[in-house]
Write a structure and sequence with these properties.
Elements: H1 6-32, H2 46-75, H3 86-112, H4 115-131
Length: 132
Amino acid sequence: VLTHSQALIADGIHTLSDLASDFMVLFAAKLASKDADEDHPYGHDRIETVATVILGLALASVAVGIGMNAFDRITHPEKLLQPTPLAIIFVLLGIIAKEGLYHYTMHVAKKINSNLLKSNAWHHRSDAFSSL
Protein backbone atom coordinates (compact mmCIF):
# COMPACT_ATOMS: atom_id res chain seq x y z
CA VAL A 1 0.00 0.00 0.00
CA LEU A 2 2.88 2.32 0.92
CA THR A 3 4.56 1.78 -2.47
CA HIS A 4 1.33 1.75 -4.54
CA SER A 5 2.21 -1.70 -5.87
CA GLN A 6 -0.64 -4.13 -6.50
CA ALA A 7 1.93 -6.89 -7.03
CA LEU A 8 3.40 -6.29 -3.57
CA ILE A 9 -0.06 -6.24 -1.99
CA ALA A 10 -0.88 -9.57 -3.64
CA ASP A 11 2.50 -10.97 -2.62
CA GLY A 12 1.95 -9.77 0.95
CA ILE A 13 -1.47 -11.41 1.17
CA HIS A 14 -0.01 -14.59 -0.26
CA THR A 15 2.85 -14.47 2.27
CA LEU A 16 0.38 -13.94 5.12
CA SER A 17 -1.58 -17.00 4.02
CA ASP A 18 1.71 -18.90 3.79
CA LEU A 19 2.51 -17.96 7.37
CA ALA A 20 -0.81 -19.40 8.51
CA SER A 21 -0.25 -22.55 6.45
CA ASP A 22 3.30 -22.90 7.84
CA PHE A 23 1.90 -23.08 11.35
CA MET A 24 -0.56 -25.71 10.16
CA VAL A 25 2.26 -27.69 8.50
CA LEU A 26 4.43 -27.58 11.60
CA PHE A 27 1.51 -28.67 13.78
CA ALA A 28 0.68 -31.54 11.39
CA ALA A 29 4.32 -32.62 11.16
CA LYS A 30 4.58 -32.70 14.94
CA LEU A 31 1.40 -34.79 15.23
CA ALA A 32 2.45 -37.10 12.41
CA SER A 33 5.76 -37.87 14.09
CA LYS A 34 4.03 -39.35 17.14
CA ASP A 35 4.43 -43.08 17.61
CA ALA A 36 1.53 -45.50 17.31
CA ASP A 37 -0.75 -45.66 20.33
CA GLU A 38 -3.88 -47.52 21.36
CA ASP A 39 -6.21 -45.23 19.39
CA HIS A 40 -3.88 -45.10 16.34
CA PRO A 41 -2.19 -48.51 16.02
CA TYR A 42 -0.65 -47.60 12.64
CA GLY A 43 0.68 -44.24 13.78
CA HIS A 44 -0.33 -40.69 12.94
CA ASP A 45 1.15 -40.34 9.44
CA ARG A 46 -2.21 -39.65 7.76
CA ILE A 47 -2.39 -36.26 9.44
CA GLU A 48 0.22 -35.12 6.89
CA THR A 49 -2.11 -36.13 4.05
CA VAL A 50 -5.03 -34.22 5.58
CA ALA A 51 -2.83 -31.17 6.18
CA THR A 52 -1.57 -31.32 2.59
CA VAL A 53 -5.13 -31.27 1.25
CA ILE A 54 -6.07 -28.36 3.52
CA LEU A 55 -2.91 -26.50 2.47
CA GLY A 56 -3.76 -27.02 -1.21
CA LEU A 57 -7.29 -25.72 -0.73
CA ALA A 58 -6.03 -22.68 1.17
CA LEU A 59 -3.53 -21.84 -1.57
CA ALA A 60 -6.19 -22.25 -4.25
CA SER A 61 -8.48 -19.87 -2.34
CA VAL A 62 -5.74 -17.26 -2.08
CA ALA A 63 -5.00 -17.61 -5.80
CA VAL A 64 -8.66 -17.04 -6.67
CA GLY A 65 -8.80 -13.95 -4.45
CA ILE A 66 -5.65 -12.47 -5.97
CA GLY A 67 -6.94 -13.22 -9.47
CA MET A 68 -10.28 -11.55 -8.78
CA ASN A 69 -8.55 -8.45 -7.44
CA ALA A 70 -6.21 -8.30 -10.45
CA PHE A 71 -9.16 -8.68 -12.85
CA ASP A 72 -10.95 -5.82 -11.08
CA ARG A 73 -7.93 -3.55 -11.53
CA ILE A 74 -7.51 -4.51 -15.18
CA THR A 75 -11.15 -3.80 -15.96
CA HIS A 76 -11.05 -0.49 -14.03
CA PRO A 77 -7.86 1.31 -15.18
CA GLU A 78 -8.57 4.23 -12.84
CA LYS A 79 -7.64 1.91 -9.96
CA LEU A 80 -4.15 1.32 -11.34
CA LEU A 81 -1.37 3.14 -9.51
CA GLN A 82 2.28 3.73 -10.40
CA PRO A 83 4.53 1.85 -7.92
CA THR A 84 7.28 3.83 -6.23
CA PRO A 85 10.97 2.79 -6.39
CA LEU A 86 10.74 1.71 -2.73
CA ALA A 87 8.79 -1.32 -3.98
CA ILE A 88 12.02 -2.83 -5.34
CA ILE A 89 13.58 -2.85 -1.86
CA PHE A 90 10.55 -4.64 -0.41
CA VAL A 91 10.62 -7.17 -3.25
CA LEU A 92 14.30 -7.92 -2.67
CA LEU A 93 13.76 -8.35 1.08
CA GLY A 94 10.86 -10.69 0.39
CA ILE A 95 12.88 -12.80 -2.04
CA ILE A 96 15.77 -13.13 0.43
CA ALA A 97 13.38 -14.06 3.26
CA LYS A 98 11.56 -16.66 1.15
CA GLU A 99 14.78 -18.26 -0.04
CA GLY A 100 15.97 -18.36 3.57
CA LEU A 101 12.73 -20.07 4.57
CA TYR A 102 13.29 -22.63 1.81
CA HIS A 103 16.73 -23.54 3.14
CA TYR A 104 15.61 -23.68 6.78
CA THR A 105 12.46 -25.70 6.05
CA MET A 106 14.34 -28.14 3.80
CA HIS A 107 16.99 -28.61 6.51
CA VAL A 108 14.31 -29.48 9.08
CA ALA A 109 12.43 -31.67 6.57
CA LYS A 110 15.52 -33.75 5.89
CA LYS A 111 16.33 -33.94 9.58
CA ILE A 112 12.92 -35.39 10.51
CA ASN A 113 12.26 -37.05 7.12
CA SER A 114 8.98 -35.23 6.42
CA ASN A 115 7.60 -35.10 2.89
CA LEU A 116 5.09 -32.47 4.00
CA LEU A 117 7.89 -30.16 5.13
CA LYS A 118 9.84 -30.85 1.93
CA SER A 119 6.77 -29.83 -0.08
CA ASN A 120 6.42 -26.70 2.01
CA ALA A 121 10.11 -25.90 1.48
CA TRP A 122 9.64 -26.10 -2.29
CA HIS A 123 6.60 -23.91 -1.89
CA HIS A 124 8.84 -21.27 -0.27
CA ARG A 125 11.26 -21.53 -3.18
CA SER A 126 8.46 -21.17 -5.75
CA ASP A 127 7.28 -18.09 -3.84
CA ALA A 128 10.76 -16.61 -4.10
CA PHE A 129 10.71 -17.18 -7.88
CA SER A 130 7.21 -15.73 -8.24
CA SER A 131 8.31 -12.66 -6.27
CA LEU A 132 11.28 -12.34 -8.58
